[in-house]
């Protein structure tokens, strides 16, 4: 028999298990999936939020058969879209269920808005090019882990309008480039490759699209599992949504081992570039660089 919580939520957990858990799934009286998260902070007022996909109620006193079980936040997926429900379950599992930690209202509210952004994310106008670029970024991150550069891996950007993909420190940047055209030629804005007092490394990827191998979605899950920071995990979820990825559409496929072997590092001092006279009226200069003519470096030279 299911256990009823406050006459509104049902679970097959017994009351002893519920009292020992900080987060668990339940179903509403309308059979919607809900996540219950124990509050870890003394808060006196209850608040609620809603959008087209979710309803959040914070800091509610709950009980089972008149026995109090504590204060909980309740996040309910009200969407009937199968993909959204699967995303909701997967994300809640790795952020809450797996960790089993109580959370304050602010943390759950932040997740509510992050999920809202993910679920409402629109497809890119050119998902194929975005998928190629993203595959290359994930390959570069995996390569950094393999080369024991986790300190750099963890500095991968949140803001995808940033000039560079990784800011190692105030004076050192990494730009990640990817091509699927069979030639190691990449296009740069001049400012990406030539900056005063900033050292720039380039990670270059050549990927060959195939029918068999590792999909972009599966590669993204490998990278997602390497991050402890849930904000970066949610960034990956949002990027996947922008690429149109799901369990049914896993995106482009390539041979992961070949991609890692073809992932190369270059130092700005070896990279040919134009020497330009600065002029405020001349902007947005870009050009192609053929890296097959440039000597690559070992990843060990990275700080």
Number of strands: 15
What characterizes the major β-sheet?
7 strands, antiparallel
User: On the 0-100 scale, what is the average pLDDT?
Assistant: 92
Low-pLDDT stretches:
none
Shape descriptor? elongated
Helix content: 25-40%
Give the percentage of residues in beta strands: 25-35%
Strand order of the largest sheet: 1-2-3-4-7-6-5
Question: Which value, in Å, is the CA radius of gyration?
Answer: 23 Å
In terms of structural class, how would the helical and strand content be classed? alpha+beta
The end-to-end distance, rounded to whole angstroms, is 58 Å
Element-by-element helix/strand order: EEHEEEEEHHHHEEEHEEHHEHEE
Helix count, DSSP H or I runs of 4 or more residues = 9
How would you summarize what this structure contains?
With 303 residues, the chain is α+β, with helices and mostly antiparallel strands. It contains 9 helices and 15 strands. Strand 6 and strand 7 (67-77) form a beta hairpin.
Describe this entry's structure for a reader.
With 303 residues, the protein is α+β, with helices and mostly antiparallel strands. The protein is built from nine helices and 15 strands. The protein has helices at residues 15-20, 82-97, 105-119, 127-146, 150-153, 190-193, 216-224, 230-242, 256-261; strands at residues 3-5, 9-11, 23-28, 33-38, 47-50, 54-64, 67-77, 166-169, 172-179, 185-189, 199-206, 209-215, 253-254, 264-267, 286-290. Strands 1-2-3-4-7-6-5 form a seven-stranded antiparallel β-sheet. Strands 8-9-11-14 form a four-stranded mixed β-sheet. Strands 10-15 form a two-stranded antiparallel sheet. The longest helix has 20 residues, at 127-146. The radius of gyration is 23 Å and the shape is elongated.
């Amino acid at each position: 028999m299911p256990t009823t919580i406050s006459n509104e939520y049902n679970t097959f957990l017994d009351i002893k298990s519920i009292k020992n858990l900080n987060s668990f799934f339940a179903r509403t009286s309308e059979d919607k999936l809900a996540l219950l998260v124990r509050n870890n902070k003394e808060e006196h007022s209850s608040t609620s939020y809603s959008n087209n996909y979710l309803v959040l109620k914070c800091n509610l006193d709950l009980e089972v058969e008149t026995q109090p079980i504590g204060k909980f936040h309740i996040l309910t997926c009200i969407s009937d879209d199968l993909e959204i429900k699967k995303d909701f379950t997967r994300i809640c599992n790795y952020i809450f269920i797996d960790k089993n930690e109580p959370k304050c209202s602010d943390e759950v509210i932040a997740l509510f808005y992050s999920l809202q952004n993910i679920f409402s994310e629109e497809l890119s106008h050119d998902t194929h090019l975005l998928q190629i670029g993203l595959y290359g970024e994930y390959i570069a991150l995996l390569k950094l882990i393999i080369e024991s550069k986790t300190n750099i891996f963890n500095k991968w950007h949140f803001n995808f309008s940033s000039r560079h993909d990784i800011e190692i420190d105030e004076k050192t940047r990494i730009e990640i480039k990817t091509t699927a055209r069979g030639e190691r030629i990449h296009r740069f804005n001049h400012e990406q490759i030539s900056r005063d007092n900033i050292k720039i490394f380039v990670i270059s990827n050549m990927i060959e699209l195939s029918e068999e191998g590792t999909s972009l979605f599966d590669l993204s899950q490998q990278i997602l599992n390497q991050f402890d920071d849930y904000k970066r995990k949610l960034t990956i979820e949002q990027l996947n949504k922008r690429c149109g990825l799901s369990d049914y559409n896993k995106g482009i496929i390539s041979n992961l081992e070949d991609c890692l072997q073809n992932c190369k590092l270059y130092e700005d001092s070896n990279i040919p570039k134009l020497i330009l006279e600065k002029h405020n009226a001349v902007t947005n200069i870009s050009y192609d660089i053929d890296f097959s003519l440039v000597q690559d470096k070992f990843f060990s030279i990275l700080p």
